Amino acid sequence: MRQTIKLKVNGVERQDDVEPRMLLVHYLRDRLNLTGTHVGCDTGQCGACTVLLNGEAVKSCMVLAVQANGAEVSTVESLARGTEYHPVQQAFWDMHGLQCGFCTPGMMMAAVGLLKRNPNPTDDEIREQLEGNLCRCTGYQNIVAAVRSAAEKMQSTPAAAPVTAGASGE
Amino acid sequence: MYSGDFAYYAPTSLGEMLTLLNNAKPEVKVLAGGQSLIPLLKLRLASPATLIDASQVPDLRMIADSGNTITLGAMTTYFQAIDSPLVQQRCPLIIQALRQVGDPQVRARGTIGGSLAHADPAGDLPAVAMALDAEIHAVSSNGERSIAAANFFTDVLTTALQPNEVLKSVSFTATDQPATGTAYVKHRHPASGYAVVGVAAVVRLGADGTCQEARVGITGAGAHAARARGVEQALAGKTLDEAALDAACASAADGLDLMSDTYASDEFRAHLTRVLAKRALAEAASRAHSQA
Amino acid sequence: MAVSRLFGASVKRREDPRLITGHGAYTDDMKLPGMAYLAILRSPYGHARIKRIDTSKAQQHPGVLAVYTGADLAGKLNPIPCAWLIPDSDLKTPPYPALASDTVRFTGDGVAMVVASSPYIARDALDLIEVDYEPLPVVTTQEQAAAPGAPQLHESAPGNLAFNWKFAGGDVDAAFRDAEVTVKQRFVQQRLIPNAMEPRGAVAQWTPGADEVTLWNTTQNPHIARFLLSVVAGIPENKIRVVARDVGGGFGSKIPFYAGEALTVFAARELGVPVKWIEDRRENYLATIHGRDQITDVELAAKRDGTITGLRVNALSNMGAYLSTAAPGVPTWLFALIVPGCYTIPAYSCDVKGYFTNTTPTDAYRGAGRPEASFLMERMVDLLAGELHMDPVEVRRKNFIPADAFPYTTVTTLTYDSGNYQQTLDKALEMVDYQGLRQQQQQMRQQGKYLGIGISSYVEVCGLAPSPAAGAMGFQGGLWEPATVRVLATGKVIVLTGTSPHGQGEETTFAQLVGEDLGVPVEDVDVIHGDTGAIPMGWGTYGSRSTAVGGTAIKKATIKVLEKAKKLAAHLLEAAPEDIVADHGRFYVQGSPAKSVTIQDIALQANLGWNLPKDMTPGLEESHFHDPTNFTYPFGTHICVVEVDADTGEVKIRRYVAVDDVGVVINPMIVDGQVHGGVAQGIGQALYEHAIYDEGGNLVTGSMLDYAVPNATQIPNIETARTETPCPHNLTGVKGVGETGTIASSQAVVNAVVDALSPLGIKHIDMPLTPERVWKTIQAAKASPTGAN
Fold this sequence. Notes:
The complex is a heterotrimer of chains A (170), B (292) and C (789).
Chain A: E1 3-9, E2 12-18, H1 24-31, E3 50-53, E4 56-59, E5 72-74, H2 87-94, H3 104-117, H4 123-129, H5 141-156
Parallel strand pairs in A: 1-5
Antiparallel strand pairs in A: 1-2, 3-4, 3-5
Helix pairs in contact in A: 2-5
Chain B: E1 7-9, H1 14-23, E2 28-31, H2 37-42, E3 50-53, E4 63-66, E5 69-73, H3 78-83, H4 85-90, H5 92-98, H6 104-109, H7 112-118, H8 125-131, E6 135-140, E7 143-148, H9 149-152, E8 153-155, E9 158-159, E10 166-173, E11 180-188, E12 195-205, E13 211-219, E14 226-227, H10 229-235, H11 242-249, H12 266-291
Parallel strand pairs in B: 1-3, 2-3
Antiparallel strand pairs in B: 4-5, 5-10, 6-7, 6-10, 8-9, 11-12, 12-13, 13-14
Helix pairs in contact in B: 10-11, 11-12
Chain C: H1 16-20, E1 36-42, E2 48-54, H2 56-60, E3 64-69, H3 70-73, E4 103-104, E5 110-116, H4 119-126, E6 130-135, H5 142-146, E7 161-169, H6 172-177, E8 181-192, E9 201-207, E10 212-217, H7 222-233, E11 240-243, H8 259-271, E12 275-278, H9 281-287, E13 291-302, E14 308-320, H10 333-336, E15 348-356, H11 370-388, H12 392-399, E16 408-409, E17 415-416, H13 421-432, H14 434-446, E18 450-459, H15 467-472, E19 481-487, E20 493-497, H16 506-518, E21 525-528, H17 546-573, E22 580-583, E23 586-589, E24 592-598, H18 599-608, E25 621-626, E26 635-645, E27 650-661, H19 668-688, E28 719-722, H20 740-757, H21 771-783
Parallel strand pairs in C: 1-12, 10-11, 14-15, 20-21, 27-28
Antiparallel strand pairs in C: 1-5, 2-4, 2-6, 3-5, 7-15, 8-13, 9-10, 9-12, 13-14, 16-17, 18-26, 19-20, 19-25, 22-23, 23-24, 26-27
Helix pairs in contact in C: 11-12, 11-20, 13-14, 16-17, 17-18, 19-20
């Protein structure tokens, strides 16, 4: 029993028929060819599939595509504006925040989500709020440094910062 | 990684949802935030024939002040609760616990009702529900009823909810009284992030600084969340010093149907329960002092 | 227009822009027209006889193209071979079929496979395959497997013994006979799951008529995969192209050649459509190799002044149900030869027995044998220090190979190339303020708090390897590397390397190497790797070999390019080649820098061929095939400071200092990153990770919900520093850094925890140091009048 879904992905309106069991991550990767979003586990621990759903970081392997009906989805492919990288992307590059790169799209989307909620996090807060994203290469040190660096840049140049919502410090 | 097939409905009213619940092809599962259910579907550990998505039902989304309690709709996400000034002010214990649930992505999707209805023995919120004497409001085509938290969790992944019932909302006792403090202390599983043991504590002090009331909810240790009534009674009227806490918390694990796994044996869970009960009560007492 | 120095600079990575924008090309990103999807049915039993398989329902399921069982592979797909045949060890290599047809030997052993039009349908069809199993008795540990009367896995391996390998040097018996003090300890190196974030997978495209296959594969060594695929599938090697563009981490788990890729190629060939197989994480835990799983009984002989005089090691290794590609070499050569570590130990023996068990096969996991070696040596040094009431620092100083003794030939016949162990120890001690920490420890002990300081001085053997050494050790391959440096007409450079980086950043470091010597910007150098269709040969990336071996090959090819460029420059400048100076991309006659030609000018002329010296061939491209003369030996000292919560058994790392000497450093930023990640994996082993089987051979820690891959809150900030002792036997002086962090760190953590708890009489705790284990050890120590252990 296929369902019709309408949603906006990276600013583009989409309408598709999907099986209800299809995961959002499979919809993004297999239907829309947005292969920057990766699948690293079955149980929701690794966070490689993290995207923004209505502005919040979520794991797209724990969301059915039908649940995203009517929603706005942003993937890693939407972060850069042309050749201008998002501050989080730039910081991951500058600070050597990635090695094999497989966790990186999800890690960056989680970082974008955390900086929306907490624009000026401490290192400990960054670590706590990246708990849903596993990296086996970096030992997290340069990821933390990258998020801190991006936060500083986004604070000093508010134009670069995305819309801030519900900054509760969580 | 690939779920079996199922029929999917996204009703837009409670009435429609209850009709579906009564009539859809079994087994029917209600989909809330999906943070527990969807992994089970993917691993094919759950294979319902019908999934009813509760996300489009407006009646399940609310945060309301109800006098002595605050009421959260079942589909309130953890983030919505955490961000709510009302919850922050009147039920800080909910915030203290929800900040330790899963990870931010889970907190964005996971819901109050989903967590309680799923009744994972290692979930965090059930301990809070116990400590805050929560009332769980269930609705079915036969009407509504309220279930005390103490009667709600009956076994591993099992609650007092009937198959035709929907968890509509939960009322938590507010703790914004003078000289009252709360705390949630958890031994986090290093992989899953679930509570190996989690203790939620509420302490209300009298004018003389002695304990007027203590409420302790425990999760993770046993098959379902429980109250440590022995600890609560032992503390009544006591000055909450190290000795009193030690003495009272010695019984924190008594009566629990202790679980055991490769990470933590029943013996270690019992020990953690005693240690964390003491820590949670000490932290709650310290907050109560500063509120006095 | 001088180019700033590239060699030694923290150049930002060339590979990152595609990866941070979501445009990496991982195997699962590959999509081909008409592609079908393969799923493998895996045994739910640790050991069972297959009585019957009925695939009829699955075959009739809409969308299913084909279902295959082991019987269908007969004559078409040979067993998966083991490729490290250690000599003189009575090695048994029972066949490892890609799909089991009569007996399954571990949970996760392949039984059947489905090819379908979508991965969802393929998974649905697996549920429709009916298999009748007759469960057989199970052994999961090496000790169970070794016991008399134990259930047998393979007819050809009586007693489940896969091999018994021995080494001895010096007079060990005399050392123990004359010992003033001896220390004994059993160590358990628990089984680990590598957990590369990208699961393994394959995409195969068969071209009928041409009878060629292209295999996109998550591999660390595409040329080895090509060779083994040729053997397994009977496809001529020249008809196979293996591609590994972006690979999402490996840590050893993507060295072996597996059933999954063989089955994918088989299906593509049978069906004539492209086929994709991507394992899910559950499958990754069951069917991709595990690491470690070794029990060692160790005895150490010493004098009362702390001088170590002898060492005896008996090791039992759990090989799993079959021998994976490189498995026999890991707990033998890669482990045993480096056990004596940084110390002048005159007598040493090691006996290693490998056993078959009903578990996932084990093989190389980051460090591969060397973490096990450094762990036991550094634990033994601490145990000796405890026995003699000496400071563990002093015992290390007393036994270190002196800095002036290099090159130093060890009791195991390795020749350590260069080193200064004292220097890294001193630097690490200074960074943590060792004396101050000891005072703080005393104060905290008086307050009932448990602070511990753990030291780990290590040397490792990497830069694998001289090919003759590989042959002598029974490795069924070479370990040299080829390189091609090709300068295009526009002066842009393409470098071909046989190493296959998958996160280590060689697209950048190799570009730095070449850019530095040719005097071109790093942006002008593209490093091509991971494609047997483009690269002549290669042995891949593991054993911290890429830069020492592959980098040296590139360096030598670059020198050849420069020589030719100088000749052409001389021709263009009408001078003698020996008078030409190459200066950051400009070529001029010595003393006359004003008149010069650039590397770009030369590249254009070389590629046009209009005006070349008489004896010069056109083009500007050189290759070099480099085989090193020795291994390399990075070393260092790591210090970990912990606080133990005695009430809950929780260990908190307060500081972690890593002082490493990895030889000359090309890119410090990348080297630091390698250390961070390596240390994180060592901390993971020390505190969190453990693959656990139940008695039935079921993997209890079968998902990331149960197996703790450390997250960002569980890894501390790591303070790095370096000394630099060049490797004397390669042109760049590099040694290798991929594994040092893992080799150095587990014992630093364990030594720290044991140090913290030493007032209770605690001498050892096996990894992982979970809260319950630590708490129980404390309880036992408190209950015992003489302390624990």
